[in-house]
Amino acid sequence: MIAVAHPQPVAARRTSDLLARAAVGAFLLVGLGALHLMFVVAGPPAYNTFSSAGRLLGLYLAFAMVCQVLLIARLPLLDRAFGMDRLTGWHRWTGFAVFWLAVLHPSFVILGFARYGQDPVLATALSLSQQVPVLLGLIAVSLIVLIVALSVRIARRRLSYETWHTVHLLFYVVLGLGIVHQVYEGTAFTVNLATQVFWWGLWAFALGALLTGRLIVPLVRNRRHRLRVAAVVSESGDVVSVHITGRHLDRLTARAGQFFLWRFPGHNRWWQVNPFSLSAAPNGRSLRLTAKGIGSTSAGLRDLPVGARVFAEGPYGAFTLARRTRTATLLIAGGIGVTPIRALLEDPDLGRDVIVIYRVRSGNDAVLLGEMRNLARERGARLHLITGRTGGANQPFQPENLRRLVPDITSRDVYVCGPAALTNAILDSLRRLKVPSRQVHAELFRLAG
Question: What are the FAD-binding FR-type domain coordinates in residue numbering (predicted)?
Fold first, then answer.
């Protein structure tokens, strides 16, 4: 039976969220203010307005890269306050900012030198590229252009997640080249001891957070828990569940609704990693992920041998009951997005006033349906299975139809997980139904897409 617990008070979470927002705002204000102060203290450039603009754009570029490193570090404070979906969105837009600054910074510098020397722009560019620090910077720019070109929507759709993730590892090369370039060309950072301490202290903080969050903590946790595959269960023709055991899992701070980045050493290459949500609430003894065979990693899960080693990075995500503001809950799942929803349905903090909507194309696509029905029966929840193609009269998530299905929807917390098109349609209907935004929680799998 499911043990029912009272919802956690939201005062502590709201305080934590406010602190996180204040920390982000203060970091940006102080960082940008310091950049402009360093720009002014460094004095006017020796050449012209183009050189001056190039120097300022270079400062912006370096700071944007620091921000990108901190986003990649996946700081727990930010993850709990904003959720990985929002952070991934910030990561994407910061990436585009890095791209444009990386293009504009050398362009203005080259124009400045060309105008000062009265030389052709191309000749100036070729001359500057013969200097090693400049050449390293130009190589970094080229790699940034490649990464962004393969990240735009039309190119991203043609790449598997594994390929896309591997390409993004080039950012670490860009990072190394950029730091070396700053050491030799960053005159604004070396004006006095204060600017040097601030600038390299900022980089030390960012790189320290990256190494701690993405390397040291995962290594320590995996050494402690020693995760292994306990069983592999086929749920349907292309969906498989992997049961994982280990030591001291009660000390793993995972919650229903969260996900890990999973690696399977010996089965896949070390750089192949996939974000899979937990499909069962953590119980201190085992973990379970359920995935649909789309990429090479997920498709190969059914071939994992029992006893295979597992390397997990996380847990991540704010798609948990810690975000809840009401005692009544609506859970909406679409397709394989049922995995975190199924875990939430098992969470003892959920309570009993629960409605579940499970949207699939056909009954055969409804993986974990038997488990969902059993959990709903134990909890006294109402489960609606909606099948068929969307269109015509079958528009279950139109505002009027959603309200008909859940008359008190505005008084519930709503958790939504599914394909992007379905999730966006539901979020639009919730806005039109005037469901308060603080009661809406969505997992968009942006990290995987």
Answer: 222-322
